[in-house]
Amino acid sequence: MIRYLMLPIAALALSAEIAPPARSGPVLEVATSAQLAPTLRALAAAYERARPGRRVAILAVGSDVAMARFSTGRSELAIIGRRGHDQELKAYEWIHRKLPVATPVFRGSVATPGHSPALAVRVHVDNSLRAITREQLTVAFRAYGDPPRWTELGAGGPLAQRPVVVVMPWSDGGTGRYLRASLLAGRVQLDWRRVRERTDVRAPDLGRDSFGAEIAAAVARDPAALGLGDATKYPGTRVLPVVVDGQPRLPGQPGYPFEREVVAYADPVPRPIAADFAVFISSAAARAIIARGPYRPLD
Predict the structure, then answer these.
(1) Parallel, antiparallel, or unpaired: how do β-strands 237-240 and 120-124 relate?
(2) pTM
(3) Which run of H or of E encompasses 242?
(4) Among residues 53, 211, 280, 294, which one has the fewest Cβ atoms lying within 10 Å of its Cβ?
């Protein structure tokens, strides 16, 4: 076992001895995901029109590969629909001897699968609950003692004494990690007797995440299920508002607590073209472009 653990460590040490490629000239390489690429290409085209002589190359390689290219200096920016994982940031630090800078550049979608949708809370259509608090959601994930029952979350009727069954994304996938970070403070100990995971499966038609629909379908089949996925409409279910400061808020409404962000990773001292492009994608002109697609500008 020790031998196998040492192999990736040795490979990382070797990579740290290889200097990243020197950057010069008018071309900026940005690594991203297939879902973000259309929006970023539209932004790149607008940037090139505004900055004649400069060029931005958008590489749709997936979030994991984008961070690998960024860490090894092959791409100057990585723009992904999630926060970098610890091992990705450590890889950059190992090679460059400094930590990268993370800057939110726009918001994920409200309910478009595969486009960093807001995390939505879903219940069966017959569930009497009309809203839920963060504290109640935390109770639903209780891992010790008696399993929480729906009465503890405020539901009455025939469902009240039934244990809460949690249906959630794969806990180590992008959405699952976001759920654990935003709701559970990174906790990994879950009550697997009543937690059901749905893996980030790709739908064959559009190549987009389908786990949100799988979570919704599971909730539609089981009145005792509490789903955490996206807010796509699904028969037999309802998306619950989350109460913030006494006000119920749905995904997409101001103050909703489980919005996701698209994040740009850059060197602490980037080349001027990289810094300039990062500034441009926060401009008023860029906001108008972003608003035409599934993503949303920052407030």
Answers:
(1) antiparallel
(2) 0.83
(3) strand 242-244
(4) 53
CA distance 214 to 169: 9
Main-chain phi, psi angles of 226, to 5 degrees: -120, 115
φ, ψ of residue 78 to 5 degrees: the values are -120, 120
> Edge to edge, what strands does the sheet with 101-107 contain?
55-60, 27-32, 77-80, 261-266, 101-107
CB 205, CB 114: distance < 8 Å: no
Distance CA 107, CA 114 (A): 13
What is the pLDDT, as a whole number, of residue 206? 40
Rounded CA gap, 44 and 277, in Å?
8
Q: Which residue shows structure tokens 């300039």?
A: 276
Between CA 198 and CA 175 the distance in angstroms is: 11
Strands 195-198 and 165-169: parallel
Nearest to 33 by CA among 252, 213, 201, 264: 264
DSSP assignment of 206-237 equals T--B-HHHHHHHHHHH-TTEEEEE-----TTE
The pLDDT tens digits for 190-205 are 888 888 887 654 444 4
Alpha-carbon span 255 to 246, nearest angstrom: 11
Both tokens of 52, joined, read 């004649």
Residue showing tokens 């963060």: 134
Nearest to 100 by CA among 186, 7, 31, 184: 31
- Rounded Cα distance between 64 and 1, Å, is 25
Q: Is 246 helix (H, G, I), strand (E, B) or coil?
A: coil
140 three-class SS:
helix
> In this predicted model, what pLDDT tens digit does every residue of 204-214 receive, in sequence order?
444 445 678 89
Rounding to the nearest 10 degrees, give the CA dihedral for residues 244, 116, 290, 245: 0
Tell me the sheet residues that pair with 121: 228, 240
